[in-house]
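step=encode ok
step=design start
structure_in=
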């Protein structure tokens, strides 16, 4: 259902039976980890024109795992980390996980 690099890949798939007998598959809820408890690879400073996918590619080698940077910075909305006015902000980049 999800690519191995997805934040939802390792979540359990559950099922729910509707009143008409149809079975619906869904992924269980993902709880955000505490960013302060994550081991860091580095910190980067947001510069003008930065996007999380670009930062993820530069630091982690894969633009699709930008969500790991969100987790390390306790951000539910990725745009909050690199929005206008966030230039100069330090972002925590976690050590890549297998």
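sequence_out=
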């Amino acid at each position: 259902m999800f690519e191995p690099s997805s934040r939802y890949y390792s979540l359990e798939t559950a099922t729910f039976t509707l009143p008409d007998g149809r079975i619906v598959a869904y992924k269980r809820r993902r709880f955000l980890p505490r960013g302060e408890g994550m081991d860091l690879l580095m910190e980067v400073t947001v510069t003008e024109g930065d996007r999380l996918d670009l930062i993820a590619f530069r630091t982690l080698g894969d633009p699709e795992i930008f969500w790991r940077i969100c987790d390390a910075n306790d951000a539910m909305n990725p745009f909050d980390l690199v929005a206008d006015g966030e230039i100069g902000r330090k972002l925590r980049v976690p050590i890549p996980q297998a």
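step=design ok
step=annotate ok -> The chain has a mean pLDDT of 91.
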